[in-house]
Amino acid sequence: MSIRPYIVGNWKMHGTRAMLAEARAIDRAAERLLKVEVALAPPFTLIHATRKEANLIAIGAQDVHPADGGAHTGDVSAAMVKDAGAGFTIVGHSERRADHQETDAIVKEKADAAIDAGMNVIVCVGETEAERDSGKAEDVVTGQLAGSLPTGEAVVEKVTVAYEPVWAIGTGRTPTVEDIGAMHRKIREKLVSIYGEEGASVRILYGGSVKPENAAELLAADEVGGALVGGASLTAESFLGIIMASAEAQEEKS
Ligand code: 13P
Fold it and tell me: Cα(210) to centroid of ligand 1, in Å?
């Protein structure tokens, strides 16, 4: 397993060209923080420009359409985002599952399409607050994994899983370190049952209200290989705070 923490910024529907200065600053700083693998997923409109600004960090998309092309007004295919400079894409984010009624089967089609196009994927899973309160969180998450993960020849090394409890996204609330560790262990078990022993090397990120102040603690939880960061990735200052905290957490783990 890669022991470098993987810290991914998801800019969601934020950013115009004025924000390229933040991407540039993140990239410059990442050159001095080689113990951490850093990536940014800007909106589609900034992928190409961000790729041109950044030398070191990975650039990705936040979604792709499952088809290669065709009559799908407003949609964007994996080949298109790859052509614009994306090396990976997020799929199955809970905001897309909720806003666009994306099922596990659709998320899997998107993941498969991205991998076919030669990209890596970050597959997001996570329970709602009602599902956690009713004791169903682990079943929901393992069910999402079974339905959403890409399958087929040589896909495992292209996959990262992000565990993002829906109730922790943008709320300032996070699970306890014990709860994160328990869920990540469960995800690891499921990855091994789906992919065999190769599933042991898939990175599992935590996402949901990660900030510079809590990053070291959250990243020290069992089986957490990095973070998927929303709001706190929008400025270089806060994102770099998380990157530096993750480098420290990594040193303590090893
Ligand atoms: P926040 O970090 O803003 O809670 O968002 C998390 C997220 O959804 C990243 O994909």
Answer: 7
Active-site annotation holder among 22, 53, 65, 93: 93
pLDDT in tens, 106-132: 999 999 999 999 999 999 999 999 999
What Rg do the C-alpha atoms of the chain give, in angstroms? 17
Mean pLDDT of the chain, nearest integer: 96
How much is the pLDDT for 171? 98
Say yes or no: CB of residue 165 within 6 Å of ligand 1: no
Tell me how far the alpha carbon of residue 70 lies from the centroid of ligand 1, in angstroms: 31
The per-residue pLDDT for range 161-203, each reduced to its tens digit, is 999 999 999 999 999 999 999 999 999 999 999 999 999 999 9
Contact 47, 85 (CB under 8 A): yes
Pocket test of ligand 1: the residue of 209, 211, 218, 246 to mutate, having most ligand atoms within 8 Å of its CB, is: 209
Neighbours of 58 (CB within 10 A): 18
93 is catalytic: yes
The distance of Cα 73 from the centroid of its chain, to the nearest Å, equals 26
Q: Pull the structure tokens for residue 220.
A: 């020290």
- Read off the pLDDT of each residue in 19-36 and give the average, rounded to a whole number: 94
User: What is the pLDDT at residue 18?
Assistant: 96
The residue nearest atom 2 of ligand 1, judged by CA position, is: 230
Q: Is 53 exposed, middle or buried (0-12, 13-18, 19+ CB in 10 A)?
A: buried
